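SUBJECT: protein chain
CONTENTS: sequence, structure tokens:
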Amino acid sequence: MSTNQVVHREDAHTLVLEPEGGWFGNSMDTLMRDRSAPFAVGERVKLVDFEAEVRQPTQDGRPARVSFRFARPLEDPSCRWVYFGEQGLAERAPPR
């Protein structure tokens, strides 16, 4: 999977991510979910601090666009937003 992705803010609690080529593109990712069980629009995974929802799958059934709805507003001081940049891990504010 490429590291290029589109990230946009849907509301005060939600980010939508679209990595180029979709999620779970390498063979190690199949250790977590068998490719014979494709993802469907609306499929959700709920964790303590956020819920992820598949918005669009790829042709081979992997997530292409996923929303992440957080329990707290994205600007909450308890949140730290990081990404892997050219120099390693770096901080970034969520999109406005």
Summary: The CA atoms of residues 46 and 52 lie 6 Å apart.
